[in-house]
Amino acid sequence: MRRNRKRRQVGRRQLLHKPTKRSFSNKKKIPFKAYLFRIFVIGSLTLFYWFFVSSAFQVKEVKITGLSDEQSIQLKSQVSDFSKGFFKKNYYFISKSSLEKHLKSNMPELKEVTVTKEAKEKDISIKASLRDIAFNWQAMGEKYVVDREGVVVEMGKTKENAINVIDSNNLLLRPGDRVGTPDLMLFIEKVNSSFPQTGYKIVEINITNEFKRELKIKTDGNFQVFFDTTRDPLSQIESLGRVLKEVKKENRTIEYIDLRVENRIFYK
């Protein structure tokens, strides 16, 4: 009996000390929220690349009309400068008004600029026109190319067949600045074109008044003429013609003719 009990006790001990099965798998379950977050991040990065970095939504072509080949190349270069960066390269993020403003400020020779976006082809069309060059303007020893509206187009250059004007006022100018009003520019053009009917040629046009109300003309007859830029230029040219006829009849030499006072003419 005692032996049987010992056997049973030993059996029980063996059962108590029987090793349990261990799991050798180190895999951890990923929480559902973290899984969704990973999907969201990957999806966002994919969309960012597709929308901003890839060529799918970038501008395909810049079409330019109204300019020469050389000017078109220069304008395209300005468009490239404007489009630097991920957002600005994207067709949908390009602002037409901002691009037009950028082109006008960086290319003063442009008179009109119109930007059109073509959504189907992801193209940008630019229609541009140049300013009408009319004057070679000189101020403080510097030379400028100026258009008919008085806007400085280029610095340090002159153009053939443009009217040469010396501005005696001490002004430092930059491209895009205005040297005078459109009315003043028109006045100078009319005086320049109608002056030959007096029988003399213009040697030099000089603006002496800081408010640009006076115009001094040096002629090939060794005399000067003073004009009032606020009055009709053609009527002043007619008055000048009458005085010159009288001077010729009297066979006199003159130093100057002053037309600045309305209804009066002074000469010496």
Automatic annotation (TrEMBL):
Keyword Protein transport in annotation: no
Keywords in alphabetical order: Cell cycle, Cell division, Cell membrane, Membrane, Transmembrane, Transmembrane helix
Transmembrane stretches, start-end: 35-53
Record flagged with keyword Transmembrane: yes
Any one of the GO BP annotations: cell division
Pfam families registered for this protein in UniProt: FtsQ_DivIB_C
Gene Ontology, cellular component aspect: plasma membrane
Domain Cell division protein FtsQ/DivIB C-terminal: 137-260
InterPro entries given in the database record: Cell_div_FtsQ/DivIB_C, FtsQ_C_sf, FtsQ_DivIB
Protein name as catalogued: Cell division protein FtsQ/DivIB C-terminal domain-containing protein
